[in-house]
Design brief:
single chain; 228 residues; Immunoglobulin-like; binds 2-acetamido-2-deoxy-beta-D-glucopyranose
Length: 228
Amino acid sequence: MSRAGDRGKALARWLGTGLLGLFLLPMSLSLEVSVGKATTIYAVNGTEILLPCTFSSCFGFENLRFWWTYNSTDVFKLLIDGTVKNEKSDPRVKLKGDDRITLEGSTKEKMNNISILLSSLEFSDTGKYTCHVKNPKENDLQHHATIFLQVVDKLEEVDNTVTLIILAVVGGVIGLLIFILLLKKFITFVLKKTREKKKECLVSSSGNDNTENGLPGSKAEEKPPTKV
Ligand SMILES: *[C@@H]1O[C@H](CO)[C@@H](O)[C@H](O)[C@H]1NC(C)=O
Ligand SMILES: *[C@@H]1O[C@H](CO)[C@@H](O)[C@H](O)[C@H]1NC(C)=O
Ligand SMILES: *[C@@H]1O[C@H](CO)[C@@H](O)[C@H](O)[C@H]1NC(C)=O
């Protein structure tokens, strides 16, 4: 009986989440944050890279807060934190976690661009970069978008490696499938041959040899009786 209750509760929760989602949907469409199409960016150590981020808000904004965070497996840090007064002003940086970071782009003329430039790249800069935006005009609605940065030695090599890995995996899978098919065929063939051989030898010592009368060694009598 408690099981039915649990199920009812789960259903209620599910419905509740669904309804809440319906309510939130029009709101979440108003503020959007985007880091562009690429979810992973490759950059060479020692160079610089632009991490793109733009936002859009159909209600307009005032004292909009934006910040970038960095996250890797063992590190989490705030990279840059600032505000944009209104649609006619450029962003003002309040806090910067690293001298190698500069805020690029502009928030004037509906550009809403809060991209950052990361210079003197080190291998340890590899990780997740998240761009957050919070708009007080929209109930402090917060949105964010994440980009993954991979700092590498050389660009081409990584591309080749990735392609090679993909090709190798695809090739490996296809090869394995073919191998399995062949193996199956081979095993079937061998089994058939073995069975045939057994028949030929007229030996049926194994218990699972089901001859019609069930008698071991009676396979020879399977032939139609010959008239004398
Ligand atoms: C990139 O890192 C390698 C290995 O640490 C180093 O030898 C090389 O000088 C670095 N390249 C740049 C441009 O800093
Ligand atoms: C950082 O990333 C890890 C692994 O993806 C995740 O478990 C963790 O919640 C993230 N931390 C923050 C503060 O976002
Ligand atoms: C944002 O600004 C940077 C720096 O000016 C620029 O390179 C980039 O193309 C801009 N992004 C968009 C989407 O306009």
